[in-house]
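Example record

The entry below shows one chain as it appears in the dataset: sequence first, then structure tokens.
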Amino acid sequence: MAEPAKYRILHELGAGGMGTVYKGLLVGQAGFQRPIVIKQLRNWEPAHLRLFVEEARRYALLDHENIGRIFDFEEVRGEPCIILEYIDGWTLVEYLERQRQLGRAPDVELTVFIVSRVCRALQYVFEKAAIVHRDISPSNIMMTSEGTVKLIDFGIATRSGTRDSCLTGKPSYMAPEMVVELRADYRSDLFSLATVLYEMLTGERLFRGANTAEILEQVVAGRIPSARARKPDLPDGVIAILERALQRDPAKRFPSAGSMGEACEHVLYDKGYGPTNLTLKHHLAFLFPER
């Protein structure tokens, strides 16, 4: 089947087990063009196709400032594709790496600001569709050049409380119940987000090891080294957020993403002012002057 005129593939952005992600163009009349992301399924096994269709349907339910948007589900070059918003910006992986390259300590307020916006996205997702992301990690959190935080990649998202037959997600960012019970609910996402917050603040992954088995052993044990031991000047409010969100028992964590976000915003704005999208925009412009 010929490539539909309205979608054109430009170049590959990355590849995974089921498919490939490309930067592309949405092409219209009179020279209209808009950059997009084309997520193309390469594995046509029925189970993979079903998961791919489910991902598109989940995405279609969501419309929020802090979530990457879906535009369409279509064939491109004869392959099923999810057409997504192209985000002009950087992942947290790139953000953290640039800070390391420059030898800069993390900006605590901006770090908490980024996490607060992910909390807004997670609260919306749960209220709208009772969806659990299950893959919260630095590679799935982006920041646009305008300073907007975006949660992306709902490829393994599922209904809250669903049990799986195998592990899902990235081992270093999993909650204990995702390993022990093969189950995740919205509190699992909060644990995962707290591991990201820990890494952003300390410069080190919370759970790390020579192999996946070692990492999972640490996750299951639930022993959390003190962030303050690595960064003594962290505010009490930030330590309190980490300690609560990283509880091994989900019942002891924040009761919702909204409540975790409120705790973040209390830290940020208790004096009546604090960072905004514009603050993050200027910080990103300093870190990435080439853009």
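Notes for this example: The radius of gyration is 19 Å. The chain has a mean pLDDT of 91.
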